[in-house]
Amino acid sequence: MAGRFEGAAGYVPNDGRRTVRTLGRAVEKCRGCDLYKEATTAVFGDGPPDAAVMLVGEQPGDQEDRTGEPFVGPAGRLLDKALAEAGIDRADVYVTNAVKHFRFRRESPGGKRLHQAPTLSQMVACHPWLEAEIDVVDPRVIVALGATAGRSLMGRDFRLTQHRGEELALPGGGRVVVATTHPSAVLRAPDRDAVFAGLVDDLRVVCALAG
């Protein structure tokens, strides 16, 4: 079927001595799907290698693609504010994305790059990187930021609207997962204050679970 990819498994170090740093270096060479062809760089996770909380977003955005760092654009700044209001220090959490390359379309030839959600095939192809991060960081709580991250972690039938803010179990992993709204969705919401308050409430649940 068109759109199926080789996947990242063959690029993920698996020698028993892997760390966040070695994974971050290896991801730069990943050709598991076609997104590397247009993206500036792969964007790996960032944060303490033994963080109790791991935040998983969808994919890098335009600014993240240019800097190589996750959640540094407008959504990242809003996330920082929400974490602070929930009593969580951004410096204490590990932040990453389900897909490591930016998927976009051009507004016009040579024009602004507009975000496009990754396809299911691209999410599946990239999933070995996320699995490796979870294994190495070993967080107590994983936060799925948005529907794409939720499906990547919980399976393709996951619905954010049905499970937002709940304490869930990662399939096959036994870890705690809490799904909430992606910060970029807060920025687009007509009732931004209410949606932001919901994000903060969910992050307070995370704070309590993380201890």
TrEMBL record:
- Domain of life of the organism in this record? Bacteria
Q: Which interval of the chain is the signal sequence?
A: none
List, for all copies, the residue spans of the domain called Uracil-DNA glycosylase-like. Answer: 44-204
Q: Which regions span the lipid bilayer?
A: none
Keywords, ordered alphabetically: 4Fe-4S, DNA damage, DNA repair, Hydrolase, Iron, Iron-sulfur, Metal-binding
Q: Which InterPro entries match?
A: UDG_Type-4/5, Ura-DNA_glyco_family4, Uracil-DNA_glycosylase-like, Uracil-DNA_glycosylase-like_sf
SUPFAM superfamilies on file: Uracil-DNA glycosylase-like
Annotated family? Belongs to the uracil-DNA glycosylase (UDG) superfamily. Type 4 (UDGa) family.
- Indicate what this protein is called per its UniProt record: Type-4 uracil-DNA glycosylase
